[in-house]
UniProtKB/TrEMBL annotation:
Pfam families: Arginase (PF00491)
Catalytic activity: agmatine + H2O = urea + putrescine
Protein name: Agmatinase
Phylogenetic classification of the source organism: Bacteria, Bacillati, Bacillota, Bacilli, Bacillales
The species this protein was found in: Aquibacillus koreensis
Gene this protein is translated from: speB
GO biological process, one term: spermidine biosynthetic process
Amino acid sequence: MRFDEAYSGKVFIMSNPTIEESKAVIYGMPMDWTVSFRPGSRFGPNRIREASLGLEEYSPYMDKHMEEVGYFDAGDIPLPFGNPQRSLDMIQDYVTQLLDLGKFPLGLGGEHLVSWPVIQAFYKKYPDMALIHIDAHADLREEYEGEPLSHSTPVRKTCELIGPENVYSFGIRSGMREEFQYAKESGMHMSRYEVAEPLKEILPTLKGRNVYVTIDIDVLDPAFAPGTGTAEAGGITSKELLQAIQYIAQSDVNVVGADLVEVAPVYDPTEQTVIAASKFVREMLLGWVK
């Protein structure tokens, strides 16, 4: 993969022209090969970039301007259509290179399985890492209809890699009975339905820890984000997710990387989902890149 020149397509607002002067790197993972309901999240990264053009560069939440961060939009990884394992290998290799360069990787999905190879890359560098997982779904299945490579399995795989006691899930309101039983018995933390306030209570226990954050856009109620593959009624508001991002920014955890996944623009002709997602990305950049 080359990082020495700007992406030729659309870029997130105020992207630096080169990677050398950048602290963070935005990259896209346009994969939806294993979805179980509605495809289309492979188009999410570019539509989020397009929506960012309507953003203000200043955030009143963080009291920061985009020019204070310095980041590079590297574009999308050219993943092989329909080949999950090869795609995951390419993502892991790509993120490993970013970490070797000392950058803060901020990924745009794509289905949630794309987070798994990213977490594998981070674990090699940060074996003491913890995961903050914000989502409507538990994603704790071992397989889906016999297939272990599924968007419903990345958090279970992560528990097995880094230890369930290092996994913290918030906003969960959907999953199999066995997934909720696993969460209860394994020692992982799971907060059902809500995000911001339970997260605020947990963050002091992660003080000084290296933390990776993965956000599935479907944690939002479909009223706020209809553009996703597996929408779940009963979700949180955009305001609460912004508050959660701010709580993390104000905490003493060391966020080492993050991703935002499962934006499927085709199901939202109003574009409110990509507009919200682009704002969340801005806040993540301004709040979490030190």
